[in-house]
User: What shape does this take?
Amino acid sequence: MHYMQYYLIGGGDIKAGKLKAIDKDAISKSKNKKVLIIDLTSNDLDKIKKYHEFLDQYFMSVCAEEVQFISKLKSTEDVRQALNLAGVVYLPGGNTKLLLENIKERNVAPILKKLDTTIVGNSAGALVLCKEVILTKDKEIEETQVFPGLGMIDFSVDVHYDNSHDKELFELSKSREIYAIPENCAIVFDDKLSHIGPVYKFSEGKKEKIIN
Assistant: This one.
C-alpha cells in the first residue's frame, strides 16, 4: 500500500515569497528534497522558459536539493522515473483546464496515482487533483463551472477563497463536500486532514471553520 501526502494551497503571490513557509514545510516532511514540477499550465514556450528560471531559484531557496520540470522529459518512462524519484511533486497555478488537458495528454495521471510521495497543488494545481473541479465566479470566469478532475482526492476545494464565494458554495455544497482555502493558506491531507491558516468547510449547504 502506497503513502501519499497532499498540500492543497489556496494560491498566493509566489514571486513575493508569500508561500515560502508552506513550500518549505512540504519539502522538509517529504521522503527527499528532490522537486519535480508539473509545469503544464501554459503552452507558451517563452513564458515556460522564464517560469523555469524563477521556479528553479525559488525552490532552491526553500531547501530543495534538485529541481526538475516535467515538460523537459521526453518519454513516458522518463516521466515515470522522475515522478518515482521525486520527494515533492509540485502542480503550480495557472490555466486549470489546460493543466488538466496536458496532464492527461502526457499520460501523467496514472503514474501520479501510484506514487509514494508528497504532492503539492497550488491554486489550479490543487483544483485538478480533486474528483470534481469547481471554478467559482471571478473577473475571468463569468459563471460557476464544475467538471471532472483527476479524482485523486474525494472532496473538492475552492481556491483564492473569500466570503464573496459563499453564495455559490452554499448551493454547490448541498450535493458535495468543499473545502474553501484562502490565499497563503493550505490543507494538508494524508490519513487525516490538518491545515495551515484558516480553512472553511462547506457541506449540506452550511459553512464551518475548520479547527485542528
Notes: The two ends are 27 Å apart (CA to CA). The mean pLDDT is 93. The chain has seven helices and 13 strands.
